[in-house]
Structures are given as structure tokens and as C-alpha cells.
Amino acid sequence: MEINLKDQLRTLRQQKNITQETLAKHLGITPQSVGKWERGEGFPDITLLPQIALYFCVSIDTLLGVDKIQIENTIKAYLKESTRLMRGGETEKNIALWEAAAKEFPNDHRVMAGWMGALAARGIWPCPREDADTILALGERILEESTDIMLREAAIQTLCHTLKSMGDEVNALRYAKMGGSIDTTREDLSAFVLEGEAGVKATQEYILSLINHAALAASLLPSKTTLCAAQEVKAYQFGIDLLKLLFSDDNVGFYANELSRLYSCIARVYAKEGNSLDTLAALSECVRYARMSAKTECDDPFGTAASSYTAPMVNRLEHIPAAITKNYSGNACDLRLNDLMWDGYDFIRKTEIFGQLTKELGQKALHPDKS
User: What single DSSP character describes residue 247?
Assistant: First the structure.
């Protein structure tokens, strides 16, 4: 059992606002002994533990730091299990997990953030009222109480997305303005500060972040205004071109799923125009990248193997499947199979190419019968 007496003893003494000499006098020992305990150079005689605990009005477990260690280990176990569930797209089980964690640790900000994220991962638009109320309450508590930057940023993002989904743009914008500027991101500053190999990696991470966000932003444009078909295609193609410029050797790793999505968006635009040739061409690329994305899950179902990106601008970075989470079961091929059920494709459904693309997706899908 791990013991953390030195930190606990120092904290308890400072909270009581007493010196090492005062505690030593109470225990009938030398101040040097207390100093050694707080430096981790030794432990009190076992017969002294009840007297010390009683003096500070705590349990012996609390004095030894065992309570805190047990809490930390339990929360780490929740986080690990949550990652496993979200890697498999088991959204409802993940929500139940964090609901249980919240009953056990109602005041832990990490648990609050986990529960918020689990509810938001349902991806229902608009967010259900009950979910939204819980998200808003948890998010406000994190912002009021926590000083952890990562937890605060996650809360701000989830609050913003939740309110936007419910049509409350005023309050969504209020939270949006709490976000940081693009000029002062961790990626930007790390790339500026670090040198050598660490600096190269940090710079590549920053470039990847910028490209990814630019591609996502471009794909949002068609939902913000009325565009003609050609303009819609250009918006999606802009994101594709950026990603292909970055991953110049087509070793796109995680971003295969995003490229597949963008090509699916283009295919829908062409389908609405009744353009069979360009629809099928876009779907062919959509399927190619979906199969590329699904290959990792088929070959490495537990996501244990990391693979390196190889294009010059990202060749210090790795694609780590185990770090990927999702809010759907199956893989990219399951998603695209479901997309192909859209009745807008009925005019090409009986073509040989469409049939072949459906077959190719089914070969890599995890749950083809459900799609």
C-alpha cells in the first residue's frame, strides 16, 4: 500500500497553523523527527499514529494519505474504463459509468467533466432538455470552482455546443468568448518556445492543429449561408485539399475518417443536382478513405499499435488508435453504409459502381447488417 504521510502531515500542520516544534512538543519528541517525517526520510513509530491522527481530528488513513490515494486510483479506473467504452462507441454505458462516479465523488471536477462529456457525446441535436440541464449545472460548477485549465476549456466547449444546439445563441456566444485566442494557444506557444527535436514535433503538432481546424471551419460554411452547388463543393474541397497538402503521401491515419466524411458531403451535393458521374466519383473516394480508416480497427481491434505519419510536415507525429474515441458503434465503413441508404442516391443505386462500393464497405464494416 502506498503511503503519503509526508505531504499529508505538512498540509494538516499548516492548516492548523502550528510549527514543527509545537507538534513535536505535543508528541514528546524532537522537532528534527517531525522534519524528517515531512521530508519523507522516515515514519513515526506506529504507536504515535493514533495520537497524531487524534491531534488533527482525522482518521489514520487520512493521516497516511491512503484515502486520497484510493480516491485517485478509483477515478483513474473510471477514466480508463470511459476511454475503453468510448473507443467502442458505447455511449450509453459511458453515461451510466459517469453517473455512478458522480454519486461516489459528487465534488470531483474530473468526474463532473467526464459526465458532461458523456452526455454531450450522445450527439443529439438539439440536446435533450434533461441532458442540457445537467450539462449546464456541471459546467457552471467547474467554471466557478476549478482552476484546472484543461477542465475549464472542456467545460466551456461543451457548454457552448450544448446551448448552440438548443438555439440559445446569446448564451452560447457568452461561453464562446471565454475561449482563448488563436494567437495564444498551447500549440502556438510551445512551437515558439521549444528547440531541437522537441521544437520540430511541437511545430508539426501546431501545423496539424491549424490545418485540421481550417478544414473543419470550411466544412461549416454551407450550413451558415445559402451557396450554389459549385460553392458548396468548393467549401468541402478546400478542407480536402488542405489535408492532402499536409499528408502529401496519402498516409493520413486518423484523418482518413474526416476525408471520407468530406467526400460524402460532396457526393450529396452532386446527387441533389442529379449528377451521377461526379456523385459516383466522390463516393468512390469516400469509400476508399472509409476503408482506410476502418483497416486499423480490423487489423488492430484494441488499438495497441501506434503508426508514424510519414509526410515531411508531420513525420515526427504518430497516429495512436487507442486514443481515438467515438459516439457510434462500428467504424467508418458502418457510417458510410448508413449514408448510402439515403434516398437521394436512388437514381444511381442500381448502377454497377454503386453496388461495388456498397460491397467494399460491407467487407470492412463491423456491423454491416445493422447499417
Answer: S
pLDDT tens per residue, range 192-241: 999 999 999 999 999 999 999 999 999 999 999 999 999 999 999 999 99
Specify the DSSP element, H or E, that contains 319. strand 318-319
Give the whole-angstrom CA distance, residue 194 versus residue 280: 46
Burial class (CB in 10 A: 0-12, 13-18, 19+), 74: middle
User: Which SS3 state, helix, strand or coil, does residue 97 take?
Assistant: helix
Burial of 112 (0-12, 13-18, 19+ CB in 10 A): buried
- pLDDT of 90-115, one tens digit each? 999 999 999 999 998 898 999 999 99
CA dist., res. 306 & res. 43, Å (int): 43
Kindly report the backbone phi and psi dihedral angles of residue 318, in degrees, each rounded to the nearest multiple of 5, phi listed first.
-125, 150
CB atoms near residue 288 (< 10 Å): 17
Amino acid at 76: K
**Domains of the chain in sequence order:** 5-64 (1.10.260.40), 85-180 (1.25.40), 219-370 (no CATH)
pTM: 0.79
If you ran DSSP here, which 8-state letter would residue 307 be given?
Answer: E
Query: Do residues 84 and 78 lie in contact, with contact meaning Cβ atoms separated by under 8 Å?
Result: no
